[in-house]
Amino acid sequence: MTSQTFASASTVRYTKATDHKSVYSLPAQTENGIFIIYADDQPAFCIQHSKMLIQEEAGFTKSELTIPEKDRLSLIAYYGYHQNPSPVNYGITQSLIWETLGSQLVSTEIPDFQNQRQIILDKVNKHSIKPSFINQTIELNIGDSIELTDTNNALERYAHLTENSANLKIEKKGNKLKLTATKDSKESGNLQYSIANQKYVGTSFVYEKEPRQSTSVLKLKNAGLFNLPIKVNPNGNARIRKIDQTTGLPLQNVKIELAYHGKKIEALTNKQGFIELNDIKAGTEITVTELEALDGYFNHQISKKIVIKSKQTIDLVLENMPQQGIATLKKVGKVPIDFEEKETEHGLLHEFNFDYKSLQNVSYEI
């Protein structure tokens, strides 16, 4: 029955809590009330129904409980009594422990015994059932949420959050679990829930002293855990640059429209030709459209799309072509076209008439 033994002597005592009588066979015995047992001041249960205790006695030997039924007895003690300690719950739990070890109940005055007995056994039998969604890794972008529904109806039994190393926002109600990644979340971690508080977990011990009955302080071998690995994708950045297509030089004060998340933002390129967007959710699609070109440049009104990637800066370069035309130069000058003769006291005078004509073979420096 036992393995490791502790040298120090222990004290076992009991106190009568109620007058509810119960009659058993195998062994044939009548319990004239509900008696709560304490071993070293911890609630304990009788595991040897055929023997008796006196109200308080020292000199018990404490050792690890190793009987085959110990895990089931620990579950009965947890669901029957430790979750909601009361004299009646103790009496029902003690009866179930004796039943598990071979005793047979004939009759009892404990109120609602059969119904409560079945509730405890249902919980014991379902203890190892995990939520339906445990075999998956949860991956979220910052700002995103996921709602998990447990089709095994086990989640509500997992009352204690024991780990949230990814620092998610958690909302738990019944068999639904909503997880949200925030800007304060870590890139990876683990989410863990337990059924039982850690104080109910540990080694079960038996207290023995002939000719007294053996009693046991029953502990769960584990808290009943489930784990969810978590991966959080950090935000990313975008950088849009506007340049002259012919020179590659940056263009400042170009008005750009950025459309994402159902909104539109107008921005101007800076001195280096950049518009920068930082801390944008991974997977976000951004539509980039030039609204107004600078004087002397064409606006082709073409939209381009980029998709934000986690922990990366996505670059988009937009080019503007300078406006071009044809310059025609014409050189004109005054040239004689005809002349007129006039009589003067000095003789005939020839006066030329001039007009503007195109000049050929003129050299230009541009």
According to DSSP, the number of beta strands is 25
Relative strand content: over 45%
- Span between termini: 110 Å
Which strand order does the major sheet show?
1-4-5-15-14-6
Portion of residues within helices: 10-25%
Mean pLDDT: 92
Q: How many separate domains?
A: 3
Helix/sheet category:
mainly beta
The radius of gyration is: 46 Å
Describe it for me?
- A six-stranded antiparallel beta barrel has the order 1-4-5-15-14-6. A four-stranded mixed β-sheet has the order 8-16-13-10, with no helix packed on it.
- Strand 14 (205-208) and strand 15 form a beta hairpin.
- The chain is mainly β.
- The chain has helices spanning 70-82, 87-100, 113-126; strands spanning 2-18, 22-25, 29-31, 34-39, 42-46, 56-65, 104-108, 138-141, 145-149, 160-164, 169-173, 176-180, 188-194, 205-208, 215-217, 225-233, 236-244, 255-260, 263-268, 274-280, 285-292, 303-307, 313-320, 332-344, 347-358.
- The model has no long low-confidence stretch (mean pLDDT 92).
- The chain has three domains: 2-128 and 204-217, no CATH class; 138-198 and 225-233, Immunoglobulin-like (Sandwich); 236-320, Immunoglobulin-like (Sandwich).
